[in-house]
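Thread: zinc ion complex, take 2
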Amino acid sequence: MVLYGFAVDSCEKCGVTANVDKTMIFKLFHTFLYTIFFQVVLVLVCAPHPARCSQPSTSSPQSLESDISQLDESREMLIIEGESYIIPPPWRGNRFIAPEYDYSDFRLIPVEYTHNGTKIYILSTAHQPLVALLEAAEKDGIFLKVESAYRSEGYQTRIFRRMLAEGRTFDDIVRYVAPPGYSQHILGTAVDFFPSNWRFAGTPAYTWLQENGRRFGFAETYSRFNLMKIPWESWHWNFIGRDDVDQDGSTMTSGDGKK
Ligand SMILES: [Zn+2]
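Output below.
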């Protein structure tokens, strides 16, 4: 039955009467079709360019953290003479933050224990233990010579600048030399014994250090199978104090460069 443009339908079973405007049904149907149409268009436009259409996300703490770590990593760059170099593995992520030292924080290692009698400085806290270690080795017939100890970040930068000027590539240099800021020597507690190369591992001095180094608080930072996967540096020993030395004499601190 039709009353004033309304279709009045009633259910014969329950007697409920419903009023339905057929014009309204027609409009609703069109609205539905338009909605479907725009959804299809949106999918076609956005699918190849998700970033273009994505909503500003409300980052979870986890996603925020990953953003920050990416930013931190991107800052691990070395700039020399206006050129930028990205710090590669294994150095990447192993930068040292050295305290602000003063000249008075260092002491000269007795020149009779340095290679070629060179003047080499070490942090005062490590000086006495190092001299004690050198004297003990001497009593055992082991003549250890220190080739290097404290090296500033500026010193390390000069090494890179010189090698680059000699025509070597950055990628080649970082295979052998820690980038500025990535050498444990900036802490002032690390020592390189002579000869600071692969030959040292075969010397009686290395065997003596393995057996006695930790008695004096010195540990081999980059042992043969160190977890940082930094190449083995048998000549490089760092003063960490007697209490902090692991059972095997190694430490898990990071980042040193060869000479
Ligand atoms: Zn070293």
